[in-house]
Specification:
The protein has 234 residues and is an alpha/beta fold. The protein has 7 helices and 10 strands. Strands 1, 2, 3, 5, 7, 8, 9 and 10 form an 8-stranded mixed β-sheet that branches. A two-stranded antiparallel sheet has the order 4-6. The longest helix has 29 residues, at 162-190.
């Protein structure tokens, strides 16, 4: 199943709807790009206002490791010709309650420091190279098949070594588990209510989150697409 799709018209994000046999809160998963066309964030914002509860990604607090990794995409809007903006959805002002079960900056930094030194060194070495590349070619990169995300692991992901498994466990898996745990708590405590719960996380998190939701008995019953980066301006 495609989560992020690239085609001749641009790059699109699949908004996924899940339900559980026997009832319970409905779930809508929004696979996000951290940088996209402004209209993408407005479209997501409009849909979030119609939901009853949001589960939102976001590491809270300071972390030099987080700052380094996010710099690789935060630089894209600095090129005004790209037409791209960073996620600017005002979650505090949507009029919808939300929870942010993500790691704190301190927790992430501690996990990062526990990684093998070679892994940390490679990340720090790659950050400036990727950042410069994104500044000059970021929009083009978002309009290639490399941006696509599927619910099954890629061949490259299956072949990565143990050291990188530990890195992605920190970057994705542990944080995915927290998102799923937050949804599980809602299902447990408010399972008899007619709620629509939105899960708003980066697209790379969505495969892991879906696996967790499947474990709770949920299944995807529908999807529609939002344009994230239009090819018309490429």
């Amino acid at each position: 199943m495609q989560i992020i799709e690239n085609s001749i018209v641009g790059t699109r994000s699949a908004v996924l709807r899940l339900t559980k046999h026997g009832g319970g809160p409905g779930i809508v998963v929004f696979p996000m790009l951290h940088v996209a066309d402004p209209q993408f964030f407005r479209d997501v914002e409009a849909r979030l206002r119609a939901c009853d509860l949001l589960v939102v990604e976001g590491i809270r607090g300071e972390s030099s490791a987080v700052d380094g990794m996010t710099m690789t995409y935060r630089v894209l809007p600095a090129d005004e010709e790209s037409g791209l903006v960073e996620d600017d959805i005002p979650y505090d002002d949507l009029g919808v309650p939300f929870v942010a079960p993500d790691m704190t900056g301190e927790e992430f930094q501690e996990g990062f420091q526990e990684l093998p030194w070679k892994t940390r060194a490679m990340m720090w070495a790659a950050t400036p190279v990727v950042t410069i590349s994104q500044f000059f070619a970021g929009r083009r990169a978002l309009l290639t098949p490399d941006i696509e995300v599927h619910d099954l692991p890629t061949r490259q992901e299956e072949l990565r070594g143990e050291e990188w498994d530990r890195f992605f466990d920190l970057l994705l898996d542990r944080r995915d588990d927290r998102a799923v745990a937050a949804v599980a708590e809602v299902v447990r405590d408010r399972g008899d209510e007619e709620l629509e719960v939105a899960v708003v996380y980066g697209a790379k998190h969505v495969p892991g989150i879906l696996r967790g939701l499947y474990g709770l008995g949920y299944r995807v019953v529908g999807a529609d697409w939002l344009m994230a980066v239009s090819a018309r301006e490429s």
